[in-house]
Amino acid sequence: MVTKTKGMGELFKEVIDKGLCTLCGACIGDCPYTVFYRGKIRMLDFCTREEGHCYEYCPRTSTDLDAISNNIFGVPFSGAEIGTVKDVFMARSKDAKVRSGAQYGGTVTSLLLLAMESGLVDAAITTKTGEDRLPAASVAHSAAEVMAGAGSSYMAYPVLEALNRTPRDSKDSLGIVVTPCQAIALAKMRLGPPMQRANLDNVRFSIGLFCTWALAYDRFYEFLKNNVDLPKVKKFDIPPPPANRFDVYIGKEVKSFPLDDVRNYRMPTCAYCLDMTAEFTDISVGSVEGVDGWNTVIVRTQRGAELIAEAKKKGKLEIKDLPALNLVHLKEAALNKKARAVQEIVKKTGHKNDLMYLGIADSLKNKLLGHRVSVQGGH
Ligand SMILES: Cc1cc2nc3c(=O)[nH]c(=O)nc-3n(C[C@H](O)[C@H](O)[C@H](O)COP(=O)(O)OP(=O)(O)OC[C@H]3O[C@@H](n4cnc5c(N)ncnc54)[C@H](O)[C@@H]3O)c2cc1C
């Protein structure tokens, strides 16, 4: 697949103005022309450059999954349901304090803390929420700052902005937590690393979060503001199927909303995303259907395997086999997301030879177009 890089004008015309932006943040942070404001990437002034990293790294412009997969895993994109897997199991933090503030088992937070403790990284890029419960990226330099980022905000937030803001000559080694679209943007950045901004060699590992969809920052905030006392909220949760609820923990109480109501606030662009398990990261982490307080963990790369080995050696994680049926369901949900995405893309473009941004082999495209999406799966 030949990728033609264009500039900021085309990024707005083809992606942002069409409502296809995922809010990954790859186009902001070091650019004087674009900024994140009230839930959207906005243009401050027009950039006349014909080619820009903003266009190149966007996960909704021409994306060659074979090239990305070759670069990370040394093999073309297979289209396997949950991507390249070295190991898969369930885990949770052995530290009760970490677990109590975490979304599920606190595996992500534990791995970040371990990486800092052992000197693998100096800082971690996380997403934390403030009093208004709006997400914001944070470059956490201490254990306390990493802990403050625990828990999930289901609103999309342009996390890669924080990476782009790191000075080119910074010596800080970094770990980063990303959703699947952010992982794809990061992988595109690794394919053609920027010369003038953040040094990607500083990123020692990425942890990906499973994600079925994310919620629109501005519209969902309005919904929350009108329905809950935001400063009192301790946690948001979308329990795995068949719960079909969005739970808001307020003190010891839980206020639940039907997930169908909350789905109205989804980012429209998530319908075109193929990736449920953050396939282009070192380690991916999600919930475990039917098992509260644990995470499903997928180890994908050597770097990921080394971090997990260290966690085992230092006794940071409790690890168990993932029940076979959970893996079956996970693969089914992930395959459904792939098939739904390709089918939605074709519905949008009106032609099966036009997959918008997506570069995949014809054989995989045909398989996904022919797949009957059977269960809702994921969120
Ligand atoms: C938008 C979204 C959708 C998700 N959808 C699913 C799903 O369909 N199925 C599933 O199994 N799991 C999903 N998850 C993942 C799940 O909510 C947990 O984050 C994951 O299981 C890790 O749990 P933990 O206990 O290890 O996390 P913790 O130890 O609590 O750490 C959570 C980490 O997530 C980061 N984070 C929080 N919000 C965001 C955000 N908006 N963007 C980027 N990073 C963030 C925090 O910085 C923190 O480092 C989703 C998460 C998000 C953010």
N-to-C terminal Cα separation, in Å? Answer: 32 Å
- Written as H for each helix and E for each strand, in order along the chain, the element string is HEEHEHEHHEEHHEHEHEEEHEEHEHEH
Spatial order of the strands forming the largest sheet: 6-5-7-8-12-13-4-14
Shape: globular
The helix content is 25-40%
The largest sheet is:
8 strands, mixed
Radius of gyration using CA atoms only: 19 Å
In short:
The chain has 379 residues and is α/β, with parallel strands linked by helices.
Explain the layout of strands and helices.
Layout: H1 8-16, E1 34-37, E2 40-43, H2 53-57, E3 63-64, H3 65-73, E4 87-93, H4 96-101, H5 107-117, E5 123-129, E6 135-140, H6 143-148, H7 160-165, E7 174-178, H8 180-191, E8 203-209, H9 217-227, E9 233-237, E10 245-250, E11 253-258, H10 259-263, E12 283-287, E13 295-299, H11 302-313, E14 317-320, H12 324-349, E15 358-359, H13 362-370
Parallel strand pairs: 3-15, 5-7, 7-8, 8-12
Antiparallel strand pairs: 1-2, 4-13, 4-14, 5-6, 9-10, 10-11, 12-13
Helix pairs in contact: 3-8, 5-11, 12-13
Bound molecules: flavin-adenine dinucleotide (FAD).
